[in-house]
């Protein structure tokens, strides 16, 4: 936040000061570190994905969002699917996760990197998310032979968690 042009610093200074009062020093550092990799998907795009999922025949089941942010995918889920689904979300950023937990208390959520999660293979009926993207590699003991960027890792691991005949729907 401190590396912008001076006129930008003046414009954002009050917001930065307010944010610094609302979160802990550790949370602020996490927020700073995710500035280049976090993206909160527009709701209109998520709704299009849910329409596609319904058209592919998904009517509910076990749903995984391995990079849930504030939970927009859960929040944009059509009501009939919500009634017939069990939601699981993983998010590394504790600030985003706390927002998601407040908004979607019925969901099972975990604060961790997806690379450290031990979820059963072939368990979920649907994995849906906006994959974290970048030229960052993560270490996952389960996938240590693969040396892929974060977005590929999330796609590969999420698909392994989906049952045969299930769906993996990702924005990349």
Write the layout of secondary structure elements.
Elements: H1 6-22, H2 25-33, H3 43-55, E1 62-65, H4 72-75, H5 79-83, E2 86-91, H6 94-103, E3 108-111, E4 124-130, H7 150-161, E5 162-171
Parallel strand pairs: 1-2, 1-4, 2-3, 4-5
Describe the structure.
- The structure is a single chain.
- With 172 residues, the protein is α/β, with parallel strands linked by helices.
- Helices cover 41% and strands 18% of the residues.
- It has helices at 6-22, 25-33, 43-55, 72-75, 79-83, 94-103, 150-161; strands spanning 62-65, 86-91, 108-111, 124-130, 162-171.
- Strands 3-2-1-4-5 form a five-stranded parallel sheet.
- Helix 6 (94-103) links the parallel strand 2 and strand 3 (108-111).
- It is globular and about 50 Å long.
- The two termini are 26 Å apart.
Care to give the gist of this entry?
By secondary structure, the chain is an alpha/beta fold.
DSSP E strands, number: 5
Structural class by SSE content: alpha/beta
The average pLDDT is: 86
Strand content: 15-25%
Instruction: Output the helix-strand order.
Output: HHHEHHEHEEHE
Approximately how much helix is present in the residues?
Answer: 40-55%
DSSP summary: helix tally: 7
Enumerate the spans where pLDDT stays under 50 for 5 or more consecutive residues. none
Q: How far apart lie the N and C ends?
A: 26 Å
Gyration radius from CA atoms, angstroms: 17 Å
Main-sheet strand order equals 3-2-1-4-5
